[in-house]
Design a protein that fits this description.
Number of helices of chain A: 27
Keywords (chains A, B): FAD, Fatty acid metabolism, Flavoprotein, Lipid metabolism, Oxidoreductase, Peroxisome
Main location (chains A, B): other
Low-confidence stretches of chain A: none
Radius of gyration of chain A: 27 Å
Distance between the termini of chain A: 59 Å
Protein name (chains A, B): Acyl-coenzyme A oxidase
GO molecular function, one term (chains A, B): fatty acid binding
Family (chains A, B): Belongs to the acyl-CoA oxidase family.
Oligomer: homodimer
Number of strands of chain A: 13
CATH topology of one domain in chain A: Butyryl-CoA Dehydrogenase, subunit A, domain 3
Chain lengths: 693, 693
């Protein structure tokens, strides 16, 4: 019997055995879809996903044809079963992905096909591969030398399962503060690794709890009793045959997390663990045969900065992973919003939730943000290889700095968008959305790791602001600005005060150039305000760190946010142009999405615009145009999500599948449980209470 | 051996057996606390908790002395064990609470002592009691007659476990749309209850899955083939002895939810279930011995409105429950923020996270909102009994309408505050905050039910706006406004445009009267803008429903939000005054909290103020004062939370306990797990993959 037949039979069985009244076929979603035509599905898919489009399709099809990929089955798994399943899943698809070390060296897109498709299924699956390929692999690739290449190759062949031991119990964001020590012993030309304190224990290391046999360890290198700063060592942590921890290493599992429990995050304790000299990834620093430390980068801080910038791919995938989460959440919430009917007109017909302003206003702006993030991610990957190449020659090059600033703000802003989006998707699905079989709680909980890992959002905003302010200071010194995304810089606050936005109705407002100009205005506004704040704080605080730290909120953070919005918008309009060239109506739909993204961003910062640039009438026009655009997009939003959303099998959501049969699926899901109609074993306790008085 | 000794011994054991380096005693939190003095703990506790203060203490002590209340033990429970445990917990404390039907009739505070303390432990525990006492009990009390009283009494004695069957698969917010049918059969003077469609199945009914034996059923009453609208029936759903569903009823469990899995939400399917006439709660409507329907309220809609307004206590407890969640989240996040150190000054000393502007700015405003909600809840309960008494005489009285408006906006706004607060608390605790043993993920997930149940937030904002706009129309007709919280109403937009806020520095800004005036301004601003929007939409749409529905976002919703903020602030200043009277320094601390609440609310709406009332310099002053207040409060915030926060045993958070030994507790928690150092059973699979190529 084929799988399809099997499924049909089990559906039939559940109908026959169901205690529920028969469920009528629900044509609500199908009818909602009919409102829109003229959308070129293939075009939208291929432009939206760009270079990953074909591979994504291929990987989706590999996964959906494998019964291991059944989200509903995962709801009841124990912690251990969850971890086992992810290993099974990787085993089932990794070798079909075509990814190799050599391939990944040439272009990042093959890896992205694998990551994008698996993230659509579950972030833990992607992360499990990411820690070994991307974090462990990239660290070796960036800072190892010839002799280390085979380690990266082994990781890409899954002969080793790698990990990255950076964070400790006591230090997360502050990597220069890690306490683990690697003392060089010249007599044996080994390093002796130790966890001198409880807070120095390597902590929350992905993949280490149960699976990893190799790790890239961040530890302070001590040579001749001198602390040479944090370096990275590729070390074996478990025996290849017995899987026992290597001598001098204790490995444990940190246990249950809010989500991502498929990943076995663990901890590592080192007690005089000896590793050979070649463990040191010695591209930047090495120890001579005479036992002398030498490094091509003199400053400890710079050296660590370079090392960390070598593993930025992880951070890029966080931006991409957030886009996937928003897309999953919206796929469920928009379909449910279309099929779910409540209240309605006086004639008794009920309206789709998605027809209510208060409902679509909560969802449609997230669709715009999803497109904005996607345009931003594409920009990041398009620049990645060339920046990487330049940085390998000159690790302190301007391009890497600018890239770092851009990635930092994108990571923070996109993940903030993501968290808000998933919460709204959850709430928009009401009580059904609170059920585990809606998947929304879990997707929100998975998304919840993104603001924290790969650089805490607050730190990254700061770092982005720092780079931009340095560039501004450069301009103050009479230099030209090199950053292509900051060409509009204007440090004359009087100019800004004199700027009046030139629009007087919806038509004149919906002009891409004007809208981008308004986003440029915001960047300039916050740069100017920040200089005022820094000046004021310089008199309030004596310590430069205090001046800096106390100019973050409302100032430096806002520069980073505004800068990110500018980049998102200027990339998104490029996607619109590409679509428009091939299909006007598809281009127009996405143009509205672009408009909404910018108008909504302006609306959320209206106060700064009303100070100088806009009058109250224009402010009202911004608010009303935002509503207009949401309304204009709600009907087409379901079709868009049909084109871009993951396959049903990846959603694990009875209320969000493409056929719109939410109620019937909800019922059959609930009735499938063994305990649905059973009496509790603790009934005697209940009876005792009731008979007590 | 005493419990304390037991605990000490197990601590000692875990130290001896631990694989970790010894953890030094961490004095960070203790040192942080020393920054503040002059806070009168007892006074703050008693004024903050008001009439519930003593009872809360008593209930906390009953619970903490019982080993059943151990949050960490709950992390590993199965769905079924979780439900069993809650029943055990109720059995252990309910009869000690002193709550009786008669007591609860006199004053709501005894019930609140029970609810507040249990919510501090876990919302599911409170909810489990709430569905039978408050939802089932209040429905009977409000719409039953003499003969039904014994049912409520039985519920309060836990002789019956009640529930409220209102929502159906197909209808949640739209109660008038429920499909369940109760057809009157005059021949037997019975009702025949049926679930005519799959969507009519009663759904997500709390307590029904495994425990309830009684329910208050909402169904359309059919008499003589005429649909008389939705009525309520108190019916027996399970046999008292066998616990089997009664004939004609199928009962099932809906299974796993995102949180609150201690509550057995279930479903009910009716198939020609016959119940006696006396099941009908017949205070408003009845059927004569001749079989004729009669009702004291003619309109179906009004009748249902009255019925639903009879069970508003549930909604009030949502506001209170949200305050508890924020308090729990902040207790953990503020303590952790004080003890967690990262980065720092050039001299090498690390700073507490809570000393960083970007960190405290994310937490301290939530403390202000927590106080605001608490002041609001106290106002709700203070008015409750008198409004209830008036409504029982005249169910359509003005006071009930106003109360309903106030409660509706408070429920929406407080739960929005709560969701945002818990997300920030989670993120503020970084990676440790993502561990299940931090408790933050679970508290956030529990909070997540509040925006949805007891009236969806979007609907409630609308209802509040409706009541206010009706009152405004009343004024247009030349009447005086009765609502004590709307006495400042000004429908002359020209007045508003002419208003200029009279402050020019921080000192003149921090004036309670001026700040409240600014909140009044906001209410008036949105009322005026809404009338403009309604007028515009009246030309854009022909259908009155469309006009209304399309004036929600930016308009009607904002009236409700602004109105709520006004009430919160005007109640919070009363709390400040009460404190100030008895202790100036405590009063001053909470006055800063009041200032922050209002200033932050103004800052978030700055755009509307800058349109007419404030100039750019004043806008900057608002932003900078907001930062100043957060900074002024960060040091004292930990002491405040020490006074108001729940006992350690209720938090279930290794990183948030009062002794500040986060790292040592984290380690001993993780090492307690059986699987911490074990190899996975699926090791062969892993080895197979690694040896594959």
């Amino acid at each position: 019997m084929s799988m399809k037949e099997n499924r049909r039979l089990s559906l039939l069985n559940s109908h026959l055995l169901s205690q529920f009244p028969q469920v009528a076929y629900d044509d609500s979603l199908a009818n909602f879809r009919k409102r829109t035509e003229n959308l070129n599905s293939d075009l939208l898919f291929s432009i939206y996903f760009g270079k990953v489009a074909d591979g994504l399709k291929r990987m989706r099809s590999i996964m959906t044809s494998n019964p291991l990929f059944d989200k509903f089955k995962e709801l009841d798994l124990s912690l251990d079963q969850r971890r086992e399943r992810i290993v099974q899943q990787i085993s089932a698809i990794y070798f079909q992905s075509g990814l190799t070390y050599q391939e990944d060296f040439k272009s990042p897109y093959k890896l992205l096909e694998l990551f994008w498709s698996t993230a659509e299924y579950e972030l833990a699956l992607t992360t499990k591969m990411s820690v070994t390929l991307l974090l462990y692999g990239d660290t070796i690739r960036s800072f190892g030398t010839e002799k280390h290449i085979q380690l990266a190759e082994r990781a890409y062949a899954l002969k080793d399962i790698g990990s990255i031991s950076m964070t400790e119990i006591g230090h997360g964001s502050n990597v220069p503060g890690v306490e683990t020590i690697a003392t060089y012993d010249h007599s044996t030309r080994e390093f002796i690794i130790n966890s001198p304190t409880a807070t120095s224990v390597k902590w929350l290391v992905g993949g280490v709890g149960k699976t990893s046999n190799m790790t890239a360890l961040f530890a302070r290198l001590i040579v001749d009793n001198i602390d040479r700063g944090v370096h990275v060592f590729a070390i074996k942590i478990r025996d290849s045959v017995t899987h026992d921890p290597m001598p001098g290493i204790i490995i444990g599992d940190v246990g249950l997390k809010t989500a991502l429990n498929g990943i076995d995050n663990g901890f590592l304790i080192f007690k005089n663990c000896r590793v050979p000299y070649d463990s040191l990834l010695d591209k930047l620093s090495s120890i001579t045969p005479e036992g002398k430390f030498k490094s091509s980068v003199k400053s400890k801080e710079k050296r660590l900065g370079i090392i960390i910038s070598g593993i930025i791919r992880g951070r890029i995938t966080v931006v991409g992973g957030t886009e996937v989460h928003i897309r999953k959440g919206l796929t469920i919430a928009l379909r449910y919003g279309a099929l779910r009917k409540q209240f309605g007109k006086k004639d008794g017909t009920e309206s789709s939730l998605l027809d209510y302003q208060s409902h679509y206003f909560r969802l449609i702006p997230h669709l715009a943000k999803m497109f904005a993030i996607q345009a931003g991610v594409e920009y990041l990957w398009a620049l990645y290889s060339s920046v990487k190449a330049k940085a390998s020659v000159d690790p302190e090059c301007n391009e890497l700095n600018e890239y770092h600033a851009m990635l930092s703000c994108m990571k923070s802003i996109s993940t903030m968008y993501g968290t808000a989006a998933l919460q709204d998707c959850r709430e928009a699905c009401g009580g059904h959305g609170f059920l585990a079989c809606s998947a929304l709680g879990n997707i929100r909980n998975e998304q919840d790791c993104h603001p924290t890992w790969e650089g805490d959002n607050m730190i990254l905003l700061q770092q982005c602001g720092k780079v931009i302010l340095k560039q501004v200071q450069h301009v103050f010194k009479g230099n030209k600005i090199t950053n292509p995304d900051l060409q509009y810089l204007d440090v004359d606050f009087e100019h800004l005060k004199a700027y009046k936005a030139a629009f007087h109705d919806r038509e004149t407002l919906l002009n891409p150039r004007l809208l981008i100009e308004l986003l440029e205005y915001k960047v300039n506004y916050y740069i100017n305000q920040t200089f005022i704040a820094l000046r004021e704080n310089s008199t309030a605080y004596t310590d430069a760190t205090d001046v800096w730290n106390n100019s973050q909120v409302h100032y430096i953070q806002e520069i980073a946010k505004a800068y990110c919005e500018y980049i998102f918008a200027s990339q998104l309009i490029k996607m619109v142009d590409k679509l428009y060239e091939k299909c006007q109506s598809t281009g127009n739909a996405v143009k509205n999405i672009f408009y909404l993204y910018v108008v909504e961003r302006i609306e959320k910062s209206l106060s700064i615009y009303v100070e100088y640039a806009l009058n109250p009438g224009q402010a009202k026009l911004i608010r009303d145009t935002e509503l207009y655009l949401c309304q204009a997009l709600k009907d087409i939003s379901v079709r868009i999500i049909d084109i871009l959303g993951p396959p049903d099998a990846f959603l694990g959501s009875v209320i969000g599948e493409s056929d719109g049969q939410a109620y019937s699926k909800l019922i059959s899901h609930v009735e499938k449980s063994e305990d649905v109609y059973s009496k509790p074993a603790w009934l005697p306790l209940l009876q005792q209470i009731k008979q007590r008085a």
